[in-house]
Protein: Glutathione hydrolase proenzyme
Organism: Actinoplanes auranticolor
Amino acid sequence: MRFSTALAMTATLTATTVALVPAAASAHGGAPPQIPTAGGYGGAVSTVDPTATAVGLDVLRRGGNAVDAAVAAAATLGVTEPFSAGIGGGGFFVYYDAKHRKVHTIDGRESGPATMTEDIFVDPADGLPYDFAEARVSGLSVGTPGTLATWEAATGKWGTRSLGSLLQPAAKVADRGFAVDATFRQQIADNAAPFAQFDSTRELYLPGGAPPAVGSVHRNPDLADTYRLIARRGTGVFYRGPVAADIVRTVQNPPVADDPAAPWAYPIRPGDLRLSDLANYRLRFPAPTRSDYRGLTVYGMSTPSSGGTAVGEALNILERTDLSEVSRTQALHQYLESSALSFADRNRYVGAYTPQPVLDRLISDRWARQRACQIDPAQALTKPVPPGDITASGCTPARAGGKVEDGQSTTNLTVADRWGNVVEYTLTIEQTGGNAMVVPGRGFLLNNELTDFNFTPTQGSAPDPNLPGPNKRPRSSMSPTIVLKDGRPFLALGSPGGATIITTVLQVLVNRIDLGMTLPEAMAAPRASQRNTAAVQAEPAFIAQYGPGLGGLGHTFTPVAELGAATAIEFGRGGRMIASAEPARRGGGAAGVVHPRR
Ligand code: GLU
């Protein structure tokens, strides 16, 4: 089992933080507030970071729409949350257009090089897959970033401001700096060994050889310059010009330090991303996934994300039981079982090239019937459960398979404007710290998204839909979700957390829609994640509260400090919005509204 390092790495990301942001961090000179819940009118923003939320609200107050605010906030997260997201990565943007009452999506996922082969993560020396850490900290793991193209397309299609103007607040934050908090420091400390391998990364993040102190001011003038260069000359500098050249050079010749302070256990392998890969990068605009749930319509992200189909399938299974009528233990049992079944099917069938009829089948009510019939209200299924056989009818399971995926990187934001437009956007550079290489002179980290491919086949004798291939995009779990009621927004939400994103989004939906919780309660409630593994990963508070009851049905638990870092907005009557962020996870998020009162 060569994935142990990945698990160890993610297990360390449990630090809490303090809300400490100095005047220097604010777009308007004052320290932005960090509150997890805000109710009001005229627009709302929820992100993991007070500075990004303040920037988004500022754009809304100046008359920008949700798309403008989301892009400005995302660019700011590239500065203040650089280990989770930035222009070196990709993501999925879901947009509800109030005027046309239509949901659109942008697939800005990273794509692999044209030369990528199925065995890219198999060591030619011994025929075994690389250790995760070896694959991650390499040029092999870097896909062509889609984030900047996403911002350009979103603003061009639906925004009212130029991309250049929306990059300015973030450039200002990068120039002036912001106070290092405990999460920022911890994320560097957890990456100290890989960051120390590269001159460019250690200069930026290990000043004097150590992570910066909490409370010190972190500046990133190179990133400010990169944002301003893009603002002046357009995204061509990134995909075809000097920034493209620097990205390719970094991937092909990693900027390895001569004297890394900390040893690294692996050779640092170059990748084969080329200028032509960047020049040929294209966004996709797939139709959203759609499933009906108790009278609501749930829109999610289609492939290459598995989020939309996995959340949709689990909801369809759950819909077969009235969760508000059963005990809390039974409701949570149904939640865990539906999630395990959905994950088995996702692992077996969902990848970048899954045919549409298969995706449609997976989120059909007929399929939900075939899968729901396997759930025993009195006894947990033995995990891993086999995937269903989509060529069969009835309750027959097929073969076993599947791997445990995990992760805590990535960031999510939710924005709504006074016109009723809504953006749900999840963006990432994959692991916290991406592939650990800052592009020299440009101030941003590169992604390691290609490690989201399966390194070797996981489905036994059945085909694995998520193996690497030329120009292919790795399967994601990102699940930006917009729920409509009678054709108008009711709830928008999303989260980071690798494959736990799917269960976090599902659990918040169940908490809010079925279990009688308000949105802030649904967000704060302790979480559990059943991804078709023997034991359920769960937060300690969940185990304390529900462990005995669920244990009686045969569930076992592995404690994890926290799951997800969600953001959400709920829409009420008369234009009222409730913006909600995490009260505590990952140091707490920041929600805000344009007008607290009507
Ligand atoms: N790369 C992951 C995905 O696309 C997200 C990483 C994370 O959230 O930790 O599913």
Notes: The pocket of glutamic acid is lined by residues 407-410, 428, 430, 449, 452, 476-478, 496-498, 501 (CB under 6 Å).
